[in-house]
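Holo model, thiamine diphosphate. Inputs:
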Amino acid sequence: MNFKDYLKIERFPSSWCPGCGIGIVVCNTARVFEELKLKKEDITVVSGIGCTGRAAGYFNMDTIHGLHGRAIPLAEGVKIARPDMKVMVLSGDGDLIGIGGNHLIHACKRNTDITVICNNNHIYGMTGGQRSPMTDKGIKTITSPYGNEEDPVNVQGIVRANKRFFARTTTFHILHMKSVIKEAIQHKGFSFVEIVSNCVENYGRRLGFKNAYDMLLNFKQTYKIVKDAKELEWDEIGIIK
Amino acid sequence: MQGNEAVAEAAVKAGIKFYAAYPITPASEIMHVMAKKKDIKFVHAEDEIAAVMMAIGASISDGKSMTSTSGPGFSLMQESIGMATMTETPLVIVNVQRVGPSTGMPTLPSQGDVLQSAYGSHGDRYPIVFYPNSVSEMYKYTIESFNAAEENQGPVILLSDGFLGHLYETVELDKIDYKVKDRKGKKFGTGNRHYTGLISKNGIPMTKDTKVYREWIKKVKERTEKIAKNYAFYEYLENEKSNTLLIAYGITSRVILPLKEKYSIFRPIRMFPVLEKELKKISEKYKKIIVIEMNDGQYKKEIERVLKREIESIPILGGSIHLSEIKDKLK
Ligand SMILES: Cc1ncc(C[n+]2csc(CCOP(=O)(O)OP(=O)(O)O)c2C)c(N)n1
Ligand SMILES: [Mg+2]
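Output:
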């Protein structure tokens, strides 16, 4: 099967803004499905609410789009009821780490065999650019107009607290992203993939990036691929398991 | 058997495949029994939101599922009830009520969540709600809740209370009559349906299309009205000498049963949609209608709404109920 068969091509162009990173994540997830030769009957994608939450609706199989923050328990219900299926969560940073943070901790604890892909654009994209739990310290957003006073959540720390599969990649490093998603899907047990992603409209623009290309270039310059690390530094991408 | 145990055993009879919950008195025994059932997927979730969301995921992808809780947990589940409605997912939620608001009087019984069970979640919805009054009825109406959920493709609320949940009664299981409605439909995974909380048509979100929403909500409303007719359960004890009709449900209807010597009694089992047709017919000949309930007149408002006449209320608050107190108030 071609990667396009996993997508509802007739729904494109998508509802995302020009220059958004979510399309890169969706497309490459479908390419991984193709590379793994997965049957459509054997996979489902579950999303929460947000711009990234719309992702499930673009996959051409039975998919579920739940409530804000609740994609993980929804997906776990599917996986526990249907262990024969590969269950993937595709959602935003606010959704998975903010409002749904408690579920993330407990999915790690349960080690439910699902793959969670977090499109981390560091912002609440859908609602217009409020600070997310992943917004860096000092950054100005519409709910931190004088600069974010708090540190972002250490999501790697949460996932690794129970020694679960954790990976970070970016929307620039496409080959890396694909290999990371592939390994996460093949991993037995809970896996979490943080994809540093570009939201130019509600985040990058306010930081002074002129377009998505500038943001991607910034990812290229900032993030270094590391292998066999025990822990990823903030500017490193790779897999810890 | 205990009221809560009856719910768990009946769920098994109804063909439940998945159950998730979070402990809360006076509902926990349902969970304790389910935990031991080896053929049923069981999750002790991190909170009630996770429990109900897991149950929705399991129902969409596999088959019948249930969760159970009490008032505080039921409040946490409200948003998910809307999601089950929008995605047309069969689901049974049991609420063994206790005194609220907040942690209230843990864990004395109450009937304070009657209106919440119908109106607690945002947006327009037409839920089906049952409220039995004995352990054998808990058994029967648990199965009917599953049936109604399958038939109506949506959430069904089964109300209980701390008294009923913890009540022990002899139950003759083979004397309870019921039929089990099986899950129908395509196996999850074989299609390309997008189950979404967004208003949508053929899996495509239609969030700016008023017409699509209106058509959908009309469909759901009409379907519920039609299907609820198959579940119009109630009990009517007519006393020819009385010109007063007492209305009570759940444990309250048990307590006031001796009053049948003096009054007529109507006991709704299907609480929502309100048994409008039946109530209109029965109530005609009564000069006075009094609703007796363990809340501050919640169902009385519903009766007033459908009968469009003044209804009296005897609220029994604070977790205890005595026939003598009710008799005094009736004087
Ligand atoms: C219970 C609830 N609270 C708030 C909202 C409003 N809301 C929708 S999306 C969103 C934030 C999404 O941010 P994120 O998960 O990072 O996704 P992104 O849009 O950035 O992809 C919020 C707060 C909601 N839909 N439901
Ligand atoms: Mg975001």
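DSSP finds 13 helices and 16 strands in chain B. Chain B has a mean pLDDT of 97.
Archived with the compound record.
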